[in-house]
# Entry
Amino acid sequence: MASEEVKLIGFWASPYRFRVEWALILKGVEYEYIEEDIFNKSPRLLELNPVYKKIPIFIHNGKVVLESLVILEYIDEIWKNNPLLPQDPYERAMIRFWAKFADDKLVLSAYFAMCSLEDEKVKAEKITIAMEALERIEGELKGKSFFGGESIGYLDLALGWISYWLPVFDEVGSMKIIDPIKFPAIVSWMNRFANHKVIKNKLPPRDKMVIYFQERSKIISATLAKNK
Amino acid sequence: MGEVKVFGVRRSPYSCRVEIALKLKGIKYDFIEEDLSNKSPLLLKYNPVHKKIPVLVHNENPIAESLVILEYIEETWKGTPILPEDPYQRAMARFWSKFIDEKCMPALLKAAVKERENKKAIEEAAELLKILENELEGKKFFGGDNIGLVDIVADFIGYWLGLIQHVTGLELLTKEKFPNLCEWSHEFLSSSIVKESFPPSDHLLEYIRSWLSANPSK
# Structure
């Protein structure tokens, strides 16, 4: 439908933006991507998301939808081809539960472990939390190719950052959260996901990511030390 | 319909959310009151990840996390809808529910309970309430004419906060500053289903008083 307005405002290094973009591409939806400098927020960003002042921001025919997981459900309800969520209410509850779990427990612990340059004790604690969370998620794969079964679904998109951002966090933080011996199913899923024909053509450049997260971890580490 | 059980704690707003939703849909369920200082083996079996209430168990299938449970209830049982039909309105309802849970609840608990002498905490909570106040403009409920997902998720604001204020003298949610929220709270508590789902105010007041005296402000 060429006359539809479909816009995505995002940031080049943000996994949350990619969740939405992957969903749109998987469904064959034409959209316009607009890059936002989150360190120099535009009036447009502040107007469209006054509550959180964050990306991603999804605009569909003038309607503004915020929060990446909310956007995924919206996209699935508007464009019904290649469904991202299962039909069964219990299965839907499970994927919503695990997406929230990973966002609450795994993302921040891994990120702040990477940023704990000064404090080895804090870093070790965060790594433990991250690995415990990853262990739970390992259990959820249960011999499937994807969390969505035979094809990529909502939970694969929600967890997709694990396949590409988490290895960068491990590198920048000199950590090994992704232990192939502890998490064989996840490592195998990571390869499948990152090499999927849609996903592999829509990822940020790894070398730029490493530099970006190195800089971020220095800044955040300094801030955390100052606030002690 | 199948067998429906709720593992919860009647004085918890999170637990009450599930009861409101089930009652709105006319679903019969068994409520199992948990002792949080001595969690039952069943609760730990049904929610091994978080070990928390509420947990809904439907035909032996457990679901944890109140927002996830509310969506499950909506999708499993037709009848009184909790979410609108329109995808954009649904997205808005989900957005506001997340906002209440992720931003408002921690700030309100800090300002009203955990750090109740902290002026800055109270100011921050007030800023968040202002956002909800604006969202209610021209509406009877967050859900429009009828109680919906966001109203259910805002239950702490509708009931608990007022009672805490009564005990501590906190003046955060006042008619002068938040006329829409106060009017909404009145409408919300007028619903017989909502009233039935909440512990009676004298019980809750007693609980609040004893908790506050056992837990001095930081």
